[in-house]
Amino acid sequence: MFTGDRSGDFLFAALHRAGYANQPLSRSLDDGLELSRAWVTAAVRCAPPANKPTPLERDTCGGYLSSELRALAGARVLLALGAFAYEALWRLPEAGGGPGEKRERFAHGLELPLPPLQAPRLEGRGRARDQAPRTLLCSYHPSQRNVFTGLLTAEMFDKLLARARQLGA
């Protein structure tokens, strides 16, 4: 995901500047990119026509995103890249929402508290334990259109990643 395209060039360069990636570019699956304390996923698992996923595709793929959020129960910060990702996250119980839940309107820099998730039990031993509170941060998607028009700048995104680092420390 994001590998070899201009959106990825913007994203991985910013992750590298913030200390979340070992290199500023990703060109292929085996190019050596390693993320540290970061996970990149998608609300939709298929490549939709014209790269514009539909609400039906979002809802159909919601189970995959739920599973990833449960597996990453210790994550303290979630960063939604775009309104579509924000909507996909907000519809999931693991993000404290649901289809009918009232929510803030999407905006770049929006910061919302999320309820903690229970950490999964390891190999059936011990009790699940509650995690620390989590935070959802929102950014405009790093699409070429948003970057080329200045809707999203490197400075704006760097500031948001610095806030993510601060919250996740």
Defining traits:
three-stranded mixed β-sheet; alpha+beta; Uracil-DNA Glycosylase, subunit E
Describe the structure.
The chain is an alpha+beta fold and 169 residues long. The protein has a domain at 40-117 and 131-168: Uracil-DNA Glycosylase, subunit E, CATH 3.40.470. 34% of the residues lie in helices and 9% in strands. The chain is built from five helices and three strands. It has helices at residues 6-17, 55-71, 83-90, 144-148, 154-168, and strands at residues 77-81, 111-114, 134-139. It has a three-stranded mixed sheet. It is globular. The chain starts with 5 loop residues before the first helix and ends with a helix. The model has no long low-confidence stretch (mean pLDDT 86).
Main sheet properties? 3 strands, mixed
Structural class: alpha+beta
Helical element count?
5
Round the Cα radius of gyration to an integer and report it.
16 Å
Helix content: 25-40%
Number of DSSP strands? 3
> How much strand content do the residues show?
5-15%
What is the 3D shape?
globular
Give the CATH H-level superfamily of the domain at 40-117 and 131-168.
Answer: Uracil-DNA glycosylase-like domain
CATH topology of the domain at 40-117 and 131-168: Uracil-DNA Glycosylase, subunit E
Tell me the CATH architecture of the domain at 40-117 and 131-168. Answer: 3-Layer(aba) Sandwich
Uncertain runs? none
CATH class division of the domain at 40-117 and 131-168: Alpha Beta
SSE topology string: HHEHEEHH
Spatial order of the strands in the main sheet? 1-3-2
End-to-end separation: 26 Å
Arithmetic mean of pLDDT: 86
